[in-house]
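User: quick one - fold this with magnesium ion bound?
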Amino acid sequence: MLRWSIATVTMGGTLEAKLAAAARAGFRAVEIFENDLTFFSGKPRDVRTRAQDLGLDIVALQPMRDFEGMPEPLRARNFERAQRKLDLMEELGADLLCICSNVHEDALGEVERAADDLGELADMAALRGYRIGYEAMAWGRHVKDWMQAWDIVRTADRPNLGLVLDSYHICVRNNPIAPIAELPADKIALVQIADAPAILMDPMSLSRHHRCFPGQGDYPLDDFIEATIKSGYRGPLSLEVFNDQFRGAPASAIALDGMRSLQAAGERLDARLMKAGIAPTQISTPLPKAPVISGIEFIEFVTSTAESPRLVALLQGMGFARVARHRSKDVDLYRQNDLNIVLNREQEGFAHSFYLVHGTSVSAMALRFDDPRRALERANALGAPTYHGRVGPGEAVIPAVAGVENSLIYYMSERPSGGGTPSNWDRDFVFVEERTPKGPLATIDHMSNVVRRSEFLSWVTFYKSVLGFVDEPQVELADPYGAFYSRVIGSPDKSVRIPINIGDGGATAAARFLETFGGGGVQQIAFSTSDLFSFVESARAAGVEFLSIPNNYYEDLGARYDLAPELIERMRELGVLYDRAKGGEFFHIYTKMFDERFFFEVVERRNYDLFGAANTPVRLAAQANELDAAACTRASFGG
Ligand code: MG
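Assistant: Sure. Structure tokens for the protein plus magnesium ion:
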């Protein structure tokens, strides 16, 4: 039966915890990794009972290694070993034993020898009603590609011997995928699914440490899954992911991520099949359609009475004006043009708890959805429950789900056609000033998240499956104190763009942020403007402090680009950075950090679509200087 399965090796913890997590996330089948039994306190029969109680089928026992093509006496010993595996399967109630292609240095390479051994093993298994699956491992001694494994299986020609098709081994070897659709369905014993990043590394290390869930890496998994279904295969599709980060995380979180990524993969699969005139599999309950998101309606900061004047001064310096006051809460709305910033100084509830943990920081963003109700149903179906906050009499209920580090993502409707803002504002706020003051800033260009490395892929999956975001390739940049990784994810129309950053090493800006902030969150908000230079001049005059950029940067700029000396001089005076790509130009500037936690960027794009990554090391170095100087000041005061 076609259904989602997960290999126990994918999760960390005890076997009991893994089974429970798999069941809770909605899996109905598992592959048992034999190593997991080694650390299991009960008998294999107890695993069977436990799985049954949880509604899980054990679809396979694996792996059996170094089996086929061995010379005597190793061959005879292998058959004894296999007999014990079959005994174990009986206790587990599994009917499939997976054999990985032999990596042993004594292994013989002839197809006939391997076919003879696997055929004999299949006959042995047939006596007990079991099946054998044979999998080509990318680093097998002789058999590395699925086509070779298929040759052997075809030659052995036993009804209970089939192929295990593992997307990782197939994609890392660049094996052809389309011919999988031509395989006889009854010759596919099991389909295993794992994605991986397109990085150059030996296949074994990449497999052991970097396998990930569909959509988290770069492999053509949609093509792979579609090909297996087109063959007529209707057995389990099983996640088999070796990843140290995954095993270090709670099993429940990993199982949920796995199920989210599979549900999204199932949705894409059915869309592809329907396009090809094939009946959809409905392997998962169909999800409500992915939302169309048309922008960020507001960003909410939590702060305190004591800290808010500094943030207000910064916002006003950048052109925001206080236009409205909340009807029942200590909350103000700051606005310019279409940009809304909500400042929350409440002394209780969600905002205050968030403030106590993180200090003055971004606690929520509100996105505009084509159909917020449908979008929420999708979030719920993908294991992201609706958050309901405290609502005063007559106030608008804005539903939300939890985002990074339990910040909130509010679900708002689109702006009414013909302009204006959603009516929610009037229900909750009393306007005290002109409703839409003009200002130099036009849009939220992007908003970056910093997360722990262990959570990075989880957020990629969340944004892609729950919000329908798409991603751009991962880049690695030099931070003065270590490496820095960034991946940009956002709505397909690019009205919302979120670079997700992770920092390795204790002193990188991202790592310092995690420490100061007490976890991940929004580190940067970038606004766009049509005239950066006049924005900076007026903001400086209003007291906004910008990041100091070293002189050498401008010397280098003059050497790299044919820019007018007066322009470079002006950038130097103001602290403006510059990049150029594909004929477009990018001018941008950073404010100094607010309490070492977040900062604003203001950008002017001239036919330029990137993020000025070339300048990121300069920014990180300048921020490191700033943080070091702040640390020195604190130390000299004995703080
Ligand atoms: Mg495998």
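One thing worth noting: DSSP finds 21 helices and 25 strands in the chain.
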